Amino acid sequence: MIKNQWYAVLDAKEVKPGKLTGVTRFSEKLVFWRGEENKIGCIYDQCCHRGASIFAGKLCGNHPECPFHGFTYNTSGNVSCIPANGSKTPVAANFKVHSYTAKEAYGFIWVWYGERQEELPEIPFFEELREGYSYSTFSENWEVHYTRAIENQLDVVHLPFVHASTIGKGNKTLVNGPVVTWKDDRMTFYVKNEKDRGQKPEKPDEIADYEALFSLQLQMPNLWQNRISDKVRIVAAFAPVDEENTRIYLRFYQCFMRAPIVKQLINKMSIPMNKVIFHQDRKVVLTQQPRKSELIMGENLIQGDLPIIEYRKRRDHLKNMNKKEEK
To answer: 127-323, superfamily in CATH?
Structure first.
């Protein structure tokens, strides 16, 4: 995992008022809830007293209550009350579990995975989608590390083979470039695939007016956007579950229809086709070995793999930066 990053980990609708939500993220069992003023809480799902699951308990007011002995917790992970000691008895500082800073924004629940800081950076969502668009969402689990799932969406070579019956029609097997640019930790890559007529692929620096081409984006650490048009986008959040599982949230965004009932109907109608395309990818990605990708892993990569190479380099760079800061 890359530390000191905001990760989109849940759809905001999954954390319901008055209830606890238990999930595995970052290979850790976590409990989420909505507390005072709708503030999102996120703590380890293991009571510091006798190790019971906090998620197996209930939300008591704004505090999760362990089902075993009634210990309650606040959003900082501190025990706020030990019933056996009396409600007026102060709780010692060692009665606590690890907590994460969590926030709701743009329809997702985000977790700051890293060191606690007084001032945290802005949540890195795509600016143009922050307002004015409506969306529909579906999600499912893939049995791969989140890096493999992300890299599939950076792969511009696979389209005519994996998606020959859908978005890969046209037999455009020759891959020019692609051109990759970075702005901070956001990658934009421009696609110019065409039919093979015996010509050599253009190198990235040979492609003129590349900004006019079809493009996609990756926002580190776990967001991806397919910029289909100014009014239609596909966004995916790759929530890291553990070393061998990823929860993927796929969204269809549009702003061409604003009538309330009709726009929701259009949004829902997008889901079946997106699932078909999604499952074409899944069928192949689940066969990849190893399940987790690294900067160097014995593969024979080609020019068309440039977005994947750039992603691996940036991920490795960010991980190394955190290691230096820890020393």
So the answer is: Naphthalene 1,2-dioxygenase Alpha Subunit; Chain A, domain 1 (3.90.380.10)
